[in-house]
Amino acid sequence: MTFESLGLCPELLRALAAAGYDTPTPIQVKAIPEVLAGHDLMASAQTGTGKTAGFALPILQMLKQNGERVVPKGVRALVLVPTRELAAQVLASVQRYGNELKLSSTAIYGGVSERPQIAAAARGIDVLIATPGRLMDLMQQNAVSLSGVRHLVLDEADRMLDMGFLPAIKRILGKLPKQRQTLMFSATFAPELRDLANTMLVNPVSVDVSPRNSSAVSVEHVVHMVEDARKRDALLHLLHAEPRQTLVFSRTKHGADKVVRFLDSYGFNSAALHGNKSQNARTKALAGFKSGEIKVLVATDIASRGIDIKELPAVINF
Ligand code: AMP
C-alpha cells in the first residue's frame, strides 16, 4: 500500500517523501480514504500508530480542494487535544505535511500569553489545534468564531474526559455547525465516551488498530537467562528483591502447583490460580491477592485476561 493509492494529492505526497514516510501505517490505510469520502470516524488508536497523519492529511487535502477562504476570526478545521504538549506536536505535524498547501494553522493552549493567539485568530485560521480550556476563554472574548468549522477532530478523547474537559467540549460543540465532519480518536471507549460519540458522530465508520496483547509503555521488561535447574532459585531471588506482590505465570497447572509448594516451603504466602481449582478456590486466591494477603499468585494464563489489579508491581513469566 502506498500513500498515492490512498488518493492523496501531489503536494502532500512530496511532503511525506520529505518526511521519510514511505508506507502508510494501518490506521492511515483505513482512515484516510474514509475521511476523504466525507465520513465521520470513530477510531480506536493509541499514540504511536500514526493517527495524527491519519486525520491531518485528508483534512488538509479537503481544505485545499474546497478552495474556501477563511474569514476573519473564522476556523475551518478544529482539532481538540487534551494537553499543551500534544497541541504543539499536532501543529508541528500539520505544518510539516501541509508546507506546500498555503493553509494557515495555529495552536491555542493555556499557560502562554493569549495575545499572539488572539492576533492569529483575528486573521482566521484554516486548521486550529486547541485545548478546550483556552479555546473557551477565547470564545468568551469573541476572539474566535467556530460557526464555519467544517471538520472537527477529538484527539485522545478518553484522556480529555479523564481530565474533566467534558463540559467544555459540550459547550464548544454547541457553537459548531451541525453540518460538519467529525472524527474521534481514543485509546479506549468507556460508556461515557460512547455516549458523547453517539451525540456527535453521524453514521461513523469504526476503525480499530489497537495492537493486540500490547503491554503499557510504562512497563519495564527484563529477561533473565537461567538454566532450567536454577529457575526456582532465580525465582526466589527475584521475589526477595520485590517485597510487595508478584504475579507469576506458569505454563501448566501442575507446574503452578509445584511452584506454590516450593514457595510455601520457603515461607512465602502464595496461592495457585488455574482451571483445575474450584471456582471457590480461584475466587479466594484472587481475592486474597487483591487484598494483599497473598504475596505471590501463581497462575496459568486464565489469569492473563481482564484481571484488574491495582498497582501490581511485578509479573514474572516463569
Ligand atoms: P502519532 O501516532 O501520530 O503520534 O505518530 C507517531 C510517529 O510516527 C510520529 O513520529 C510520526 O511522525 C511517525 N509516522 C506517522 N506515520 C508514519 C509513516 N507512515 N511512516 C513513518 N513514520 C510515520
3D architecture notes:
There is one protein chain. By secondary structure, this protein is of the alpha/beta class. The chain is built from 12 helices and 11 strands. The chain has helices spanning about 10-20, 25-35, 50-65, 85-95, 115-125, 130-140, 155-160, 165-175, 190-200, 230-240, 255-265, 280-290; strands spanning about 40-45, 75-80, 105-110, 125-130, 150-155, 180-185, 205-210, 245-250, 270-275, 295-300, 315. It has a 7-stranded parallel sheet with strand order 3-4-2-5-6-1-7, with helices on both faces. It has a 4-stranded parallel sheet with strand order 9-10-8-11, sandwiched between helices. Bound molecules: adenosine monophosphate. Adenosine monophosphate binds near residues 25 and 47.
Condensed summary:
By secondary structure, the protein is an alpha/beta fold.
Distinct compounds present: adenosine monophosphate
Biggest sheet, spatial arrangement of strands: 3-4-2-5-6-1-7
Figure out the total of helices: 12
Spell the H/E element sequence. HHEHEHEHEHEHHEHEHEHEHEE
Distance between the termini: 40 Å
The Cα radius of gyration reads 25 Å
Secondary-structure-based class equals alpha/beta
Largest sheet: 7 strands, parallel
Helix content: 40-55%
Q: Can you tell me the overall shape? A: elongated
- Compute the number of strand runs: 11
Q: Which percent range describes the beta-strand content?
A: 15-25%
Oligomer: single chain
Average pLDDT level: 91
Q: List unreliable stretches of 5+ residues.
A: none
